[in-house]
Amino acid sequence: MLPSLLLRQVRLCRSNLGSSVSFCHWHQQQLVRSYSATANTNDDTSNTPSPNLANTVFSKRYGTRTKQTRSRQQWTKEEDELLEQLYKEHAPRYTHIATLLPHRAVATIYNRCQALFQRTTTRHGRWTEEELEALRHLTAKATDWHTIQQQLPYPRTLFSIKQTWYHTLNPQWTRGRWTKEDTSKLEQLVEQFGTDDWCLISEHMRTRSPRQCLEKYRYQIEPGHKGQYTPEESAAIKAAVDKYGSRDFKVIKKAINSQRTSRQISQHYRYALDPNFDRSPWTTQEKLEVYRLVQTLGKDMVKVKEAMKSRRQIRDMWNQYNNVKAWSDKKRRSTTS
Prior knowledge:
Domain HTH myb-type: 67-121, 170-225
Pfam family, one: Myb_DNA-binding
GO molecular function: RNA polymerase II cis-regulatory region sequence-specific DNA binding; RNA polymerase III type 3 promoter sequence-specific DNA binding
Helix content: 55-70%
GO biological process, one term: snRNA transcription by RNA polymerase II
Domain Myb-like: 67-117, 119-169, 170-221
């Protein structure tokens, strides 16, 4: 039998999911079963996180849908100003604040407040390799999310910790390149079930999370205009960004009447048009400096970028680091053979 604490967690827990990718009843069952399996073994080296953790992530089936009743748009300046006023007047009554912002979920409001008003104590943004390794180590033990939160190298919200484990470290999911068979299966499931419930599709895939299925289909499979951007398209995007800003590319897509997805337009602008980044040819000195600083500071490219005072994009810096590392490894093997 499952411990009474676990049963109470399954019945009572309400996670901070909001309108983001959420978790399915089927997934919960799988992890509860894994608890039963691990409860009957003394193997302490298992890589499966404690199901106590899994059950505190979710308690009911929300489904990952593309047609949400709550907004998933980026927050506008006006919304942030209103939220700040409401936060000062009503915090920590986030449910009450949500009644005054009916198009935003309670969890979304809570997370936005954490990001805006708790920056001195809580870290936000991309997780470092150090943090991911610590989370991987901590979730391999039988403990709880609050304990994990206290033992991480940097303070993170519980929501961020749970989401990162579920989507990044959960050993249930296959990661890396999709095979042709997996892609074909996803296409068949979308044709069968539609695009309203990605949890259902994930249940049938069994090896890919709802978010992985959604992003694979939406950004790589879904019909839409693809191929190189014409100079006219790029000019139209730049003009629209100058007029409307770069916060919401759905607005840009509508303004230029493009058949491309808002994600495609956003990435093209970020990686090819954004004037805030340096796209000049890399010098040999720059490449070696990136490699040297990674060896010194660790695999935190944000720190490396700050140390170099560079305007390069993080993705480009990783590409250059990996190129130099591959060359260095090859040279080292040739000298030792």
